[in-house]
Design goal:
The protein is an alpha+beta fold. It has helices spanning 3-15, 36-49, 78-84, 118-124, 129-135, 178-190, 197-209, 215-221, 229-232, 235-242, 246-259, 261-275, 279-302, 309-322, 385-402, 411-428, 516-522, and strands at 54-59, 65-67, 70-71, 92-102, 105-113, 142-144, 160-163, 327-328, 333-336, 357-361, 364-366, 369-370, 374-378, 468-471, 474-477, 490-493, 496-499, 506-507.
Length: 538
């Protein structure tokens, strides 16, 4: 179907007033979505953090082209969803600290949404519209996005205007460019000159997450990126590149706060709120993690050496869908043997697992919240002695980290403990000679926040109650490594999702076996997929 033909049909249907009951609310839907009261409470929590005479502005994400005139399935901006419940493109939310007067009425929040269009809705699905935003999301003030440009708000009068780095790639935004117009109107109203989105994202990362302890690793990871034209033109990033030490880091962080206050303030507020999960969020996250754990268990029961990586992925995603998960929280990682030594291997293209270890990092996304669970299993059901030794070492490191998962413990201590245990174990196995070599086989961090983003927003100081974080030590020994060949192509990661408590953490992904003995036992159990027989392709 050509793009022009599609547009012509849309216009025709709109002109003829076709609605086909599109205005009616869809029935037979899940009953456990977050409530409008939850989202309203999050907006109030945001106001409580904002200083007087300030406003926060949150735009939708742009649509993205998949191929020609077909877009990817739309994924909403997690911040916009968190604070409004709205999941459609071409929208913007305004949250004011103080009540704004408007003649005889007043308001402290406004949502601008995509307009209703019967013709388009018949092709691409129902739209909530202004009335839906009011009745279903609880907004008293909601307008079509086209009304934003003329809406009587003077952003220049506010002491602080908080906003995220603005979307840049709006090529999938449709022929009318609604989101592009929204952003242009905001820039005009607020009188701002926008910094490159990726540069701004990296500045926020430096401000929020970089510490003297991880500075060297961050600078190594971003070495090539910081050398591109956009980053070379930013004086603060180049100051850190020129002298990457703790003193420079502190100075750069202070300058980021002064120079980019609207962006860094936004990042600070949203990270503080989204890092600590509410009971409603915990309930949804638990379901996402449980679904993911059951999928991992089913693979343990069904996996065979003659399976392909993609077949294993298919088992995972089927189980996710069977329990109501809308999607995966990130591209599934299913790597056998050498592929398991690639941290974010996503091709999943090997046609046979053979008698190798299979590393599976796959998590369901349920109602917007993502799990992140990794298990490493032998495709033939039995660990070799070398595989077992590496697996047990990673397991031991994870056990030691779990002991630290309670409120008040410095987040950085989890990373320190993981490196300490893994280094000692690798030395004992003769794979490395001193602890400084551990990063050769353990090149990533051991934890991140989990929520609406798989790498969710959250603090980096002391652990707090109701943070949900991952614990994921790993060891990866690719072929050619400077150690005995018997260790080559062994890659092991064990990743669990943990809710931080006052005195201890709760492992949410407990339904997926972790001990090597329990994994071997699961391999002897019958899978529901064993009876599945598919005809051969011609």
């Amino acid at each position: 179907m050509t793009r022009s033909f599609f547009r012509a049909l849309v216009v025709l249907l709109a002109l003829t007033g076709s609605n086909r009951c599109l205005g009616q609310a869809a029935e037979n839907l899940p009953s456990d979505y977050l409530s409008k009261e939850f989202h309203a409470g999050r907006r109030q929590a945001l106001r409580d953090l904002m200083p007087a005479n300030s406003v926060t502005v949150i735009f939708s994400y742009p649509e993205q082209v998949f191929s020609n005139d077909v877009n990817y399935v739309y994924h909403p901006n997690p911040d916009l969803y968190y604070f409004s419940g709205y999941k459609e493109p071409n929208s913007v939310l305004l949250v004011f600290k103080d009540t704004q007067a408007d003649g005889d009425s007043s308001y402290n929040e406004v949502l601008f949404v995509r307009h209703r269009d019967a013709g388009r809705e018949q092709w691409t699905g129902r739209r909530l519209g202004v009335e839906g935003a009011k009745s279903q999301l609880g907004f008293k003030r909601a307008y079509n996005s086209e009304d934003f440009a003329k809406f009587p708000v003077d952003f220049k009068k506010f002491a602080n205007v908080y906003y995220d780095a603005l979307p840049e790639d709006v090529t999938g935004d449709g022929s009318t460019g609604e989101l592009k117009k929204l952003i242009a109107a905001f820039k005009t109203k607020a009188g701002i000159t926008e910094t490159n989105r990726q540069v701004m994202s990296d500045l926020n990362l430096i401000a929020r997450m970089v510490t003297p302890q991880n500075l060297d690793r961050v600078m190594t990871y971003f070495k090539d990126k910081f050398a591109d034209e956009d980053h070379k033109n930013n004086p603060l990033i180049q100051q850190l590149v020129a002298k990457p030490d703790s003193t420079t880091l502190a100075d750069v962080k202070a300058k980021i706060a002064t120079t980019y206050g609207g962006n860094t303030g936004y990042s600070e507020f949203t990270s503080k709120l989204r890092g600590v999960k509410t009971p409603e969020e915990i309930a949804v996250l638990k379901k996402a993690v449980e679904i993911s754990s059951l999928a991992h268990l089913e693979v343990m029961k069904s996996v065979k050496p003659n399976m392909s990586e993609r077949e294993v992925e298919g088992i995972m995603t089927y189980v996710h869908k069977r329990y109501g998960a809308e999607d995966e929280g990130y591209p599934p990682i299913v790597g056998a043997g050498a592929n398991g030594c690639i941290l974010h291997y996503e091709e999943n293209s090997a046609t046979k697992l053979n008698n190798q270890l299979l590393l599976m990092d796959v998590g369901a996304e349920y109602h917007g919240y993502s799990a992140d669970v990794t298990r490493t299993v032998p495709a033939n059901g039995k660990f070799t002695e070398e595989q077992k030794a590496i697996y047990q070492l990673v397991y031991d490191a994870q056990e030691e980290i779990f002991k630290l998962c309670k409120a008040g413990v410095p987040y950085a201590s989890l990373e320190q403990k993981s490196a300490e245990v893994l280094a000692a174990g690798l030395i004992k196995l003769g794979i490395i000679k001193n602890a400084s070599e551990v990063r050769k086989y353990y090149p990533h961090g051991c934890s991140h926040h989990l929520g609406l983003d798989v790498h969710d927003k959250g603090g980096r100081g002391n652990l707090e109650e109701n943070w949900v974080i991952t614990v994921e030590p790993g060891i990866y020994i690719p072929a050619g490594s400077p150690c005995d060949k018997k260790w080559w192509n062994i890659g092991v990661r064990i990743e669990d999702d943990v809710q931080i408590g006052k005195d201890k953490g709760t492992i949410l992904s407990i339904d997926a076996p972790r001990k090597w003995q329990d994994i071997e036992k699961a391999a002897t159990e019958k899978s529901i997929f064993e009876a599945a027989k598919f005809p051969e392709l011609k």
